Amino acid sequence: MTTTTALSTEQQAQSETVAAPLDIMDMDLVPKVVTVDVVTITPEVATEMLGRNTHNRTVKPHHMKMLSRAMTAGQFVPNGDTIRVGRDGTVLDGQHRLLAVVDSGVTVEAIVVTGLPNKVQETIDTHAKRTVADVLSLRGERNSTTLGAVLRLLWRMDRKGFPRVAAGEVSNQELLATLDAHPSIHESVLVGRRLRRAFVRIPAASIAVAHQLFVSIDPEDCDDFFEKLESGAELSDTSPIYRLREQTLKLAAARAVTRSEVYLAMTIKAWNAYRQGREVQALYWRMGGHAPEAWPVPV
Length: 299
Hints:
Blueprint: E1 6-7, H1 10-15, E2 34-41, H2 43-50, H3 61-72, E3 82-86, E4 91-93, H4 95-104, E5 108-116, H5 132-138, H6 144-160, H7 172-181, H8 185-197, H9 204-215, H10 219-231, H11 240-253, H12 260-276
Parallel strand pairs: 3-5
Antiparallel strand pairs: 1-2, 2-5, 3-4
Helix pairs in contact: 2-4, 3-4, 5-6, 6-7, 6-9, 8-9, 9-12, 11-12
């Protein structure tokens, strides 16, 4: 089904003539009206439209791949967002969706607006993006900001096996699918928030992901580990839990900008030493540099 809306110029209003829908592939025409069509975008149609993508922002490969993954997985749902084309046929908005159609080989339906003044491109994508925390809140989820950060870490781990490899952009749909794959994550989020309130200087999201990993290995050891991490009581100075607390306190005191996955890796290393009964003199994890460490696997 194709729906067309024509916005007439003054001359057309006087003549009361309704313009016929513009064929979006007839890019040599300079439309005198703005038309809105629901169009089937095949890879071939996308390729031809991209031939007029001559004045646009720099392509963001990670964003294009995110859309391509969604199309391949059947998660891409037309939500009313339009592909916008200028009066001279230039693609003003929608290049990433068109590139994703070509990349995935998937045909999608899209609303295409043609005949816009090219200058409107300056006003596109200037509004606040709806984050996964916004979506989770609309779903009635509690602690949506922390939960969103947890889902990003979990998605990267599920996809790469360890989060220090840059995974690029991830869609809200992919994060919601991650939530469905980890139904017990809400309990882990509560643990993360509780320890954060107890002034454990580890991001709540890192604690929550660590808890999710450890509880599946040994629930009793998991409870003991986090109780000791929270209280800090009766720990020797060579206890891996003590060393974890001390290192994170040092980072906090230095106001160091440290990524969540670094805290997660240190927590996993402390857990492994705790499980193996090993004492440690220091605890850290080298993410980069000349001798980066492998991602620790919890035991």
